[in-house]
């Protein structure tokens, strides 16, 4: 075998030409090769092949050993994708479903309320796997009682890396996937299929994950390093010619790569090898992750040539980024194959698209950072993924933490639903400050920019941090002016103010059990956010007498997320009222700066192993304020039964597929009012039933007024919980309300009924 390698030419001086026409934007190609005829440039980049001979040692874990290469091929996701695609190609099942346009309401009708699971944190009976526990009939009976209609399993396929002949551990909670195989630590493919069948029996669905943005350092990456066939095309990786290895850092013994510092990144960009600095460094940590690029050590290729590569990783060094516009389209084939395996072979109904906003990168001229966020290629790639998922009968949702416009534009042709990064930090801020002003601003801004709440997954805690980057305000709208606290401030100032509020109210001296996570947000649980807002500075200060107040505030947040259109999602950490794990119990896990491990405490949903002090994966058991589900479902007024009442109203009136029409001003800063048309998205209905959600984000009683242009004077206002009339809309389109601490009202205004002739 042989390989053709590609190099870059030398920089040449730029020349300016006088012209009365505006100067066109300088492209990377034009900047690097200004004096060379365009049609000669690609040919000038080609280097002659260098064929070398080597002998094979059957014990070697490198490209000299044919058996090792074949073993890697059998482990690789790209190989599995090729097998899966051949099995589905040309089948009539591929043409039975519409796929061009996202359909949020169709997805919500399939699964309206989701349970978000996390594999390494679920305590199971001895000898029972994670997937086996999720497929338990008793658990699904409990879910059905509460009103939960889908389980998002979290990542359960093999993750981490391969070093030599050995598997290495995940570096990011199994989001560094290396295989389509189920990780034996979580169960088997048969158990996943049984879970899908049990869910279906209870009217539910199973939601799996794919990761379009990166893999781990598994077989696919190792084969790419060896320059085997199409595999280098999976990644944003560039071969650095041996004469330029002096630019690269040395890789210490025991490591396979090292992160580039900013100076090396700049030098390699100047030489034309890489596109250089990106718009931001996610998970930035001085000395650990200074840039988004890392260099490998010398790696023997299948053609006998030893190479060094520089590769892109938006996230951690063990998560090489996938290249969606390589001529081989190998990365696309790998991701689509993984998706089809989950949907067609395992029985999932839907997929979460993780890290899907970073699928396009492009060199910028004039020293600006490379274009890496909001790139059109991300939209195109998401269209392909989501279209394929819909084509086989499923739906997808995305976790896209970018601007509201990015969420809107990607959602026009991509995933059916988007995670609600818009309002999640805002409702936490409302609770922390006892003031909904910023939350009202985010809700209104989302509506005005075309992202309706019906297209969003409104969630409480998941495995990630409370994200407070507020990228909509911090980036694209940094200089725009917004009214806030009786003055106009810029988007950048707004983001800075909200972050400062959250940090001061929820961490440090205010609550030593919540921790800042790099530049992204705060590691915490929903219960620990509430505890901090209620003045608990340590975990030890939270007693049994405090549980009722924490539960009341928790239910306020449930009402906010559930009493608006869209998906409502919650986790076991929410259902059980989990507090963070004390820092000392996860000190080794957070040593690299990933403080999120404190919020991922192990939990026993069904009380199947009360003696357990940790999950089977080794996560320490956290403290539960509300108790296991069987106990809660037998206790009137428990958190779980209160959630059921909230969800019953949502389901009865079809609020999940309604249309939001107004976020009016409020009479008290701690109030929030949301007005909805119960029209299932049909804007042609002239006089639909209206629903009004009224919430109190404070621990005090509130008397106030609801006023909205969407209300019709002299109509009766009905409390949906009691079915009693609580007042009438006056001629100023308003009515009065009273709310207990952290209370909420689900109000209905019926359409006018024509008198019978």
Automatic annotation (TrEMBL):
<dbReference type="GO" id="GO:0016740">
    <property type="term" value="F:transferase activity"/>
</dbReference>
<feature type="region of interest" description="Disordered">
    <location>
        <begin position="1"/>
        <end position="39"/>
    </location>
</feature>
<keyword id="KW-0808">Transferase</keyword>
<dbReference type="InterPro" id="IPR012665">
    <property type="entry name" value="Trehalose_synth"/>
</dbReference>
<dbReference type="InterPro" id="IPR017853">
    <property type="entry name" value="GH"/>
</dbReference>
<protein>
    <submittedName>
        <fullName>Maltose alpha-D-glucosyltransferase</fullName>
    </submittedName>
</protein>
